[in-house]
Structures are given as C-alpha cells and as structure tokens.
Design brief:
With about 160 residues, this protein is mostly beta strands. It has no helices and nine strands. Strands 3-4-9-8 form a four-stranded antiparallel sheet, with no helix packed on it. A hairpin with a 5-residue loop joins strand 1 and strand 2.
Length: about 160
C-alpha cells in the first residue's frame, strides 16, 4: 500500500450543473436538461437491464429514439411516455421454434427498457415508424418558458 487514496478522485462538475442532496448531478441550470448518460454500461437506470440497444438524438425541436428490436412484430410493441423525460418501450418476440439447437441465444420473451430522454417532451404529435426490426420514435420537445420555469405573478 502506498498510503495514497486508491479510489477515484472527487467528481468534478461543470459550473452550470446543480446537485441534489446526495451530490448527484441533476440538471443543467441554463438549459434545464439532465446530464448525458454515461455509456460505461448498457443501463439507463440502475437495476434495469437493457434488453435492446437504442440511439437517442437531440435534434432541433425533437428528440428521436431509434431502437433495435430484432424479431419483434409491430403489433407486439408498446411505447409509453411515462413522464416528460422518460420513455418505456416494451416488445414481445417469439423465439425460434423447434429442438436440436446446439446454442440458442435468440430466445423469445419480452424485451423492455426505460429510456431517459435528454429534454422534456410531449406525447402529442409523436411519430413512429417500424421497419426491418428498427423502431423510430420522434417526440416534440416542450417549449421552455425561460430559465427556472414559469414565473407566477402575485395577485
């Protein structure tokens, strides 16, 4: 042992980020956005597995989510906006039928994933497409009324 701190150093935060009472970065003060998700793992929320891969694009006035759902049928996919910054995609897919497999990695079952979005969105005017096992969801960002939310006048 060298006597030095062997763990990682203190986490530095940008001056435009705020922290919660446990020291976690929660929101960019100027844009009112959550910080980007670390891609160090395949999980957006702890304890929930990432059953499929997604790309999330912050594009102008839209947030675009592209999800790979191989083997899923369009009528077996459920998309739900749980709150303005959380999307849940669930899909059922049938596994290969028959016996005699030496290795079977493409099993059937339910795939589900919670996706933290980079900005608050609304479900109104959402557009979706599903082609060749790839789902695309286009969501419109909510209009931000200014820094810190909406001002409420005193009556």
């Amino acid at each position: 042992m060298t006597g030095e701190n062997e763990g990682p150093g203190p986490t530095r935060r940008r001056p435009d980020e705020t922290e919660d009472d446990q020291g976690r970065t929660v929101r960019d003060v100027e844009t009112d956005r959550l910080p980007p998700i670390s891609r160090g793992s395949d999980r957006d929320f702890r304890g929930l597995s990432a059953d499929f891969r997604v790309d999330i694009l912050d594009h102008g006035d839209q947030v675009i989510v592209v999800a790979e759902l191989p083997g899923a049928e369009e009528d077996a996919i459920n998309i739900r906006l749980l709150n303005p910054q959380t999307l849940r995609i669930t899909a059922r897919r049938a596994g290969p039928a028959g016996e005699g497999y030496y290795i079977q990695e493409r099993g059937g079952g339910t795939l589900s994933r919670l996706i933290r979005l980079p900005a608050s969105v609304t479900g109104e005017a959402a557009k979706t497409s599903f082609r060749n096992g790839v789902l695309e969801v286009r969501l419109t960002k909510m209009k931000i009324t200014g820094p810190g939310g909406k001002e409420i006048p005193i009556e």
